[in-house]
Amino acid sequence: VHPNVSQGCQGGCATCSDYNGCLSCKPRLFFVLERIGMKQIGVCLSSCPSGYYGTRYPDINKCAKCKADCDTCFTRNFCTKCKSGFYLYSGKCLEKCPDGLEANNHTMECTSIVHCETSEWSPWSPCMKKGKTCGFKRGNEVRVREIIQHPSARGNPCPATSESRKCIVQRKRCQKEGKGKKNREEKRKKSNKDESKETRQESKGRAARRQNREQRENNNKTQPKKRKAPNKEQDLAPVDTAH
């Protein structure tokens, strides 16, 4: 072993040097050179840093640098994320997306252009005017449809989702359901009130008659019975003196 090479290294190194850092790594770790000023130092990492991709060999696992426009990559020729100002498409970083694709500034990728899609029109609504379906001759009817797919930045915009047209209905009177119901309710309340009033009056009348009857009975019990007056005609009858 070279005198500058040590076997008792730290930080995942299998062999190391005081000047160059790690020279080899322990199993499953990746060896990568980090530049510090004018000097390169070997380090051993569990995964490759941003801008590098890992390759495994029987004797050593190494981290190799991605292309200059790649932020992360799977191999040198296949990028997984591009640096600022570039758009990812099929593993490559492009300044401008190909024809038929558009740049997505959120994901920084070239994606397919998406056009708007809508559902079928609904049936026409009843002919109405000011929220009513009666009491007029001319009104409007409408139909609607829903947006199924919103468009992308360069996609075809969505058309109108509602339509209106003039309509004619047979002239007819509106049924005053609300007013009739209100009148019926008022009549019912008034009837109940009148019945309650009559019931109260009848109750008062019965109570008054009962009280008068009881008072008469009490008076009869307390007053003495009157003696029957003699019949004056009988007293003045002529006396038979024939005998």
Automatic annotation (TrEMBL):
<dbReference type="InterPro" id="IPR036383">
    <property type="entry name" value="TSP1_rpt_sf"/>
</dbReference>
<feature type="domain" description="Spondin-like TSP1">
    <location>
        <begin position="116"/>
        <end position="170"/>
    </location>
</feature>
<dbReference type="InterPro" id="IPR043601">
    <property type="entry name" value="Rspo_Fu-CRD_dom"/>
</dbReference>
<dbReference type="GO" id="GO:0005576">
    <property type="term" value="C:extracellular region"/>
</dbReference>
<keyword id="KW-0964">Secreted</keyword>
<dbReference type="InterPro" id="IPR000884">
    <property type="entry name" value="TSP1_rpt"/>
</dbReference>
<keyword id="KW-0879">Wnt signaling pathway</keyword>
<feature type="domain" description="R-spondin Fu-CRD">
    <location>
        <begin position="11"/>
        <end position="110"/>
    </location>
</feature>
<dbReference type="GO" id="GO:0016055">
    <property type="term" value="P:Wnt signaling pathway"/>
</dbReference>
<comment type="subunit">
    <text>Interacts with the extracellular domain of FZD8 and LRP6. It however does not form a ternary complex with FZD8 and LRP6. Interacts with WNT1. Binds heparin. Interacts with LGR4, LGR5 and LGR6.</text>
</comment>
<protein>
    <recommendedName>
        <fullName>R-spondin-3</fullName>
    </recommendedName>
</protein>
<keyword id="KW-0358">Heparin-binding</keyword>
<dbReference type="GO" id="GO:0008201">
    <property type="term" value="F:heparin binding"/>
</dbReference>
<dbReference type="Pfam" id="PF19028">
    <property type="entry name" value="TSP1_spondin"/>
</dbReference>
<dbReference type="GO" id="GO:0005102">
    <property type="term" value="F:signaling receptor binding"/>
</dbReference>
<dbReference type="InterPro" id="IPR044004">
    <property type="entry name" value="TSP1_spondin_dom"/>
</dbReference>
<dbReference type="InterPro" id="IPR009030">
    <property type="entry name" value="Growth_fac_rcpt_cys_sf"/>
</dbReference>
<feature type="region of interest" description="Disordered">
    <location>
        <begin position="169"/>
        <end position="243"/>
    </location>
</feature>
<feature type="compositionally biased region" description="Basic and acidic residues">
    <location>
        <begin position="175"/>
        <end position="219"/>
    </location>
</feature>
<dbReference type="InterPro" id="IPR006212">
    <property type="entry name" value="Furin_repeat"/>
</dbReference>
<keyword id="KW-1015">Disulfide bond</keyword>
<keyword id="KW-0677">Repeat</keyword>
<comment type="function">
    <text>Activator of the canonical Wnt signaling pathway by acting as a ligand for LGR4-6 receptors, which acts as a key regulator of angiogenesis. Upon binding to LGR4-6 (LGR4, LGR5 or LGR6), LGR4-6 associate with phosphorylated LRP6 and frizzled receptors that are activated by extracellular Wnt receptors, triggering the canonical Wnt signaling pathway to increase expression of target genes. Also regulates the canonical Wnt/beta-catenin-dependent pathway and non-canonical Wnt signaling by acting as an inhibitor of ZNRF3, an important regulator of the Wnt signaling pathway.</text>
</comment>
<keyword id="KW-0325">Glycoprotein</keyword>
<comment type="similarity">
    <text>Belongs to the R-spondin family.</text>
</comment>
<dbReference type="Pfam" id="PF15913">
    <property type="entry name" value="Furin-like_2"/>
</dbReference>
<keyword id="KW-0732">Signal</keyword>
<dbReference type="InterPro" id="IPR051514">
    <property type="entry name" value="R-spondin"/>
</dbReference>
<keyword id="KW-0716">Sensory transduction</keyword>
<dbReference type="GO" id="GO:2000052">
    <property type="term" value="P:positive regulation of non-canonical Wnt signaling pathway"/>
</dbReference>
